[in-house]
């Protein structure tokens, strides 16, 4: 997930100083720490209902600040409240409990074993850096916030500077809903500005950080978290080029569909998606270009993102061995849509070509002679959120080989579908080796995201009433 | 888990250079990457058998280098091979698979959902820093190595300088066993020396680090891992003081047992255990001291550890408000056994008193007036591997309150038992908030340790034969 470089933003005059925010977050964490999963399920449901009820106020503000179409924003808000309710449901059914019970065993081979019951407890106050490109789904009440609340943590959200009014409105809707539900409104607080964000990462009261944004910004904040006297987990979702391999059979059997699907996927949301297919290996670039439909894209999130896109596009196009193959001028405030082309040979010389993310409606076609070449250049590739194989109607040896090659680098591996459009479910995985994620063993989307914000505790020989309910004999 | 500060050690002349080791580890990782859990179960069993068969050669070398009694070493070796077999069993039964399957659902509320199946894949070559105090259980074939192999990763072990001959012998026994089993012997390689260890942490071919040792050394290596251009997970088990609270009822009802148990636990292994109870809150220090049996301890691991202990003990004893309450001179190469005393009032002034680990047979008694005082001083406490409540025969309100207070800081919470003697099982948890661990959401002991070295991958719309066996419809 990529976003515009943050800018310093003056906080609203009434906003309390950071120290007060963090003191309140600590107190709120203490209150929610021992809440039951059912309590937290109720809170998430209340938040979802409040957000849905405020749609008429939220969407116009989001549209004004992000230029995203209302239909897209309506869908994204629905996704966001669905996400709240999915976590609520899984909390209520116990699916997010992480329970391991070893009863006492005098005959355990390494020596008598005591009764040990392991479950998880919340980490404490979590700091969330909201993203610019999904003002709802990765915003104030987005995935990181919802998974941290589901985990039983209080949350401080650093608002994205791209949509300050929406961030404040969302936070105030949430605060009112929490108050109505009898919960501490400080469970979810907003801060603004780069400096407060960085200071909060360094503050000992923050126990974990969730971040969605650029590789550069995320790397800096990661270093701050790691440089604390008491380092804390930093869950950053940074950059990704989401390679796609079109196999020979794919091209022969499904070429027109693939070209259409590609055009729709890389321009979706004006290419401002973390899972945008930014690199596509094809056997014949000219033929692929000829099969592509006309390219269109809507406006960029803001002027800074548009400028960043134009610069990144020019930089990539200026690399040795890279050419612009197609460029549809946007004009009238719209971005150019661009397809660039290169070859596996050029990538062999300059491996960074396939790991350079261009945040906007552009993608790089890489012409290959054989899949051996693709496998070779992928060998030096870094991490990515997704890897896609576009094969023929049936899975052949080429397809198997490319699925395996991409599994080494990607958090999600896709066959004959496109990486944009990330469903929220129990099996979803959104992450991957650096720089896709700073924490490759975790996910930032899907219900497994909750486990980032809880830590295991083993209870040894603890009587029934001293145990957390999840590990009692009678629950 | 604490260990002596490492010293530079010349590698054996025949040892290949680090670059060769890492190239081999990469090739070995590639070969084991797609192995089946059953294959890896077989390898771990072969390793366990080989280690058991070599006990007659291993234990004398271990005894010579660590001064640990042969009976202890025999028990520790049994624990180590049991650990191999436990992971092997759990691999064979599929218990370590981490599987989530969401079948396609056209009616999924946020929009039609594709078929998504999530399981995990190995991270790649893992670097393990072995500990000094458990030459087998946290040594070359210790918990980190076994969990990384179980995860399907190749392993490079940085030998602890306290037992170089044992490390080399263990590695050669393992290499021979792997060769006999037809596996790549480079699956497990040894390196020596501080410089190679640090260089390996920084090398892009290493994909994760496991470390057991001192807070200072671990913190430095953690910074190296975080400072890479491509940061990697660093799983460090560092320092811990393992606080114990003796409640008023505990003292009244079980005082003599508690004093006996404490004396045995804090002097076990000459206090060189990561879970040694280093801080004990008692209502009456004088009475507690009077109830304690005579104190004895065996030799320290080596001269450097002995010197480090003596210095740390003197430093703690010199702090304002701390006094030596009992000190049994060791003499004849044995360490002094010491009990220090202070008060909750002194801890309130100097909170570090209860987070200062003294690695050796010493412990600090903290006299309290009320449990309010204990709760207050624990409020500023950092992380710890274990927290123990010694209460009366039944769990009362005081006990509940102290269990809860310790759950905020500890990875394992114990009632009326002692923290030393860490069983290896499915529910075990060995870790905790910093500095107990650099990765509080993970464990370094127990079968859950395997998940540190695998990352999730979601397979979307992938046909049956392209899926890993664990997520196929027909397994």
From TrEMBL, chains A, B:
<feature type="domain" description="Aldehyde dehydrogenase">
    <location>
        <begin position="18"/>
        <end position="432"/>
    </location>
</feature>
<dbReference type="InterPro" id="IPR050740">
    <property type="entry name" value="Aldehyde_DH_Superfamily"/>
</dbReference>
<dbReference type="InterPro" id="IPR016162">
    <property type="entry name" value="Ald_DH_N"/>
</dbReference>
<dbReference type="InterPro" id="IPR016161">
    <property type="entry name" value="Ald_DH/histidinol_DH"/>
</dbReference>
<dbReference type="InterPro" id="IPR044151">
    <property type="entry name" value="ALDH_KGSADH"/>
</dbReference>
<dbReference type="InterPro" id="IPR015590">
    <property type="entry name" value="Aldehyde_DH_dom"/>
</dbReference>
<dbReference type="Pfam" id="PF00171">
    <property type="entry name" value="Aldedh"/>
</dbReference>
<dbReference type="InterPro" id="IPR016163">
    <property type="entry name" value="Ald_DH_C"/>
</dbReference>
<protein>
    <submittedName>
        <fullName>Aldehyde dehydrogenase (NADP(+))</fullName>
    </submittedName>
</protein>
<keyword id="KW-0560">Oxidoreductase</keyword>
